[in-house]
Amino acid sequence: MDTEEYRDHPVRSYVLTSGRAHPSRNTLRPETLVRAVESRPVLSTASRLERELVELCRGTLALAEVAAYLQLPVSLVAVMVSDLVDTGNLTIRSNHQAHVLPGKDILEKILDGLRKL
Amino acid sequence: MDSASSDRPATGQHLAPTVARSVKVLVVGAFGVGKTTLIGAVSEIDPLRTEERITTASVGIDPGQPNKETTTVAMDFGRITVTDDIALYLFGTPGQRRFWDLWAGLADGAVGALVMIDTRHLEDSFEVLDQLELRTKIPFAVVVNQFPDSPNYPLERVRAALDLLPETPIVECDARDRQSAVLTLITLVEHAMTFPVFQKVNA
User: Fold this and answer.
1) Within a 10 A sphere around the Cβ of B141, how many other Cβ atoms?
2) Does residue A109 belong to any structural domain of this protein?
3) Residue B113 at interface with chain A, using a CB cutoff of 8 Å
4) Number of separate domains in chain A
5) Strands of A33-36's sheet, edge to edge?
6) Which InterPro entries match (chain A) (predicted)?
7) ipTM of the assembly?
8) From the list A69, A98, A99, which residue is nearest B9 (CB)?
9) If you average pLDDT over residues A84-99, what whole number do you get?
10) Of B8, B23, B81, B193, which to mutate for an interface test with A (greatest number of A Cβ within 10 Å)?
């Protein structure tokens, strides 16, 4: 089965998420960092796409990067990532909470970093 | 693996294992203003593209039709690992009216926005600036992208034409040049630091 056929078709895409349009947690943003939990085997019931996603996250990536590499919409990948966090296959790397802005200390570190570029 | 998978990397260009935090900056502006050029100039990875479907209220109401439509919007983005543990993501978003709902969502948690301006089409920027002020409270800096045939207006004239607040930074930039693009980010983050909302230390 070629997943390419699913792309750019909203109805088929969402079959991949059992019809859900919203993730099981609402803390995921495009910049949220995710990473595979290496010690956790992927469930035998996982889809090919879910396996591909976990494989992709053997190192840290932002949700938007995962979506770009899989050529799927961010909102769809958010649903899949959320499920894979629930099954213990992925971990959310970024330690900040949704709706919490970076503090001044973080901005200062960013500024220092930018000035060194 | 099928052939459809061969045109993308088997593994992404992963962040260093020490990176545990991400922040984002939006790059907003009209089509062709140089958003992706600027992102590409500073990004440590080739800019990536992702598509998002958004439901928008359609313009003009037809009583017989649902007044919503689904649009696909492409976002180009890049990243810079700015310190051992922080990655900065730059998300380019189109400036047109039908994408304004998208920005409101994307602006959530953002450090701020770079609003890119082409002085040859200054009128394209008015609505973008109005909406950014109306829909989000995020800090922004105005970036005048210098094209070879751009009229050479003094920045203060551009500031007046755009009716910017005195504290809003405005900088010239060559979006193709890395250092020039980095300077726009420094300007934005310095401006963001003056906002009370970022004063809290929450390391």
Assistant:
1) 24
2) yes
3) no
4) 1
5) A61-62, A33-36, A90-92
6) DUF742
7) 0.85
8) A69
9) 80
10) B23
